[in-house]
């Protein structure tokens, strides 16, 4: 049985294990499976890495992220025009992002992505491409998915793919298909399993949206 102190220590160790975060000043508190991250980092990429590292720790039910971005030097501070130019250039070199399909808006270092793409992996590629650029304060990904052809989604194919996955094969996940939308319900043991189930569902042809209603639950209770 894990206590709040055990979970706090596990998350702290997970953050130290990440090379980008080993020297970062990030505070961790734990209460009944809910982790709160505080402190500061010098890039948006490190901020998202910290949240992801915390989510993947066994016992974490939710993450409240209050980390601030404080650029370490003037070279990290760039005006919006410079950031916009770097984003456009970065997209040109990423084969996962179709040319001229993504619109970019930059305001005070915060990037907003808009447009329509055929696959979710392209949407994620666009977001990841800009997240690690210097000077970025945050990313809002408003890109929507709209497949070129309206293939009928095969529910059994998604269920089969979930059963083949080593981390999900013994989970009771219900798949519901309505038009171009897939809804996942049930319980999983970790945030990793939750995100992995959604990633698999997104790969099905004809999917325009995935509603991930999977609940992260554990066989043990957290106690002080």
Q: What does this protein look like?
A:
Helix 6 links the parallel strand 10 and strand 11 (209-212). The chain contains six helices and twelve strands. The model has no long low-confidence stretch (mean pLDDT 91). The protein is an alpha/beta fold. Strands 1, 2, 3 and 4 form a four-stranded mixed beta sheet that branches. Strands 5, 6, 7 and 8 form a four-stranded mixed beta sheet that branches. The protein has helices at residues 4-17, 44-55, 80-92, 120-131, 155-164, 191-202, and strands spanning 25-31, 34-41, 62-65, 68-69, 102-107, 110-117, 138-141, 144-145, 173-178, 181-188, 209-212, 215-216. The longest helix is centred in the first third of the chain and has 14 residues, at 4-17.
- Overall helicity: 25-40%
Poorly predicted segments: none
Radius of gyration: 19 Å
- One letter per element, helices H and strands E, the order comes to HEEHEEHEEHEEHEEHEE
How many DSSP E strands? 12
The share of residues in extended strands comes to 25-35%
* DSSP helical segment count: 6
């Amino acid at each position: 049985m894990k206590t709040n102190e055990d979970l706090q220590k596990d998350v702290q160790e997970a953050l130290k294990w990440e090379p980008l975060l080993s020297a970062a000043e990030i505070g961790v508190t734990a209460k009944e499976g809910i982790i709160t991250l505080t402190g500061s980092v010098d890039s948006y990429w490190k901020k998202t890495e910290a949240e992801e590292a915390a989510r993947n720790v066994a016992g974490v039910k939710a993450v409240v992220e209050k980390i601030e971005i404080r650029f370490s030097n003037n070279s990290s501070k760039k005006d919006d025009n410079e950031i916009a130019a770097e984003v456009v250039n970065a997209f040109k070199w990423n084969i996962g992002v179709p040319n001229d399909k993504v619109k970019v808006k930059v305001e005070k270092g915060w990037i907003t992505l808009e447009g329509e793409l055929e696959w979710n992996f392209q949407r994620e590629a666009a977001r990841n491409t800009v997240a690690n650029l210097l000077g970025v304060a945050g990313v809002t990904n408003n890109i929507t998915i709209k497949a070129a052809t309206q293939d009928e989604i095969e529910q059994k194919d998604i269920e089969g793919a979930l059963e083949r996955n080593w981390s999900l094969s013994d989970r009771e996940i219900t798949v519901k298909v309505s038009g171009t939308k897939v809804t996942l319900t049930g319980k999983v043991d970790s945030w990793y399993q939750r995100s992995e189930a959604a990633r698999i569902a997104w790969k099905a042809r004809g999917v325009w949206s995935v509603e991930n209603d999977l609940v992260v639950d554990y066989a043990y209770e957290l106690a002080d």
